[in-house]
Amino acid sequence: MKTKQKGFTLIELMIAVAIVGILTSVGYPSYQSHVRKAKRVEAQGALVSFATAMEQWRVENNSYKAGTDGTDMSQIFANQVPTDGGTKTYTLSLVSDATSYTLTATPDGAQTSDVCGTLTLKNTGEKGANGTSPDTAGCWD
Question: Each residue of 52-82: pLDDT tens digit?
């Protein structure tokens, strides 16, 4: 009587590994793109919160100017995203004078490969991005 062997052959195992490799090579870049976009949205939210803090600063001080040179944001808002600490994905900065301000979120680390690049928000509500994307206006959508 002949007994049946149980298990996988080497060829079957190699085919399974190849399929997993192909799926990973297709899925991982898409996953990374979604992670970058999520971190960009987090930076946009921080910029909007920062703008709200700047408006509060103006109400209390009758000027947007922060510090002697207009860049001291230490009393107004956090200087990084995420704002509650953790691994920094964006650095926040401020340029202000008595009547206007520009907030900037500059990507750090792996986020530097984001196609939208540096995000800006002005006191007029004007939003901008200066990355490599042909549609930087779409970076805020």
Answer: 999 999 999 999 999 889 889 999 999 999 9
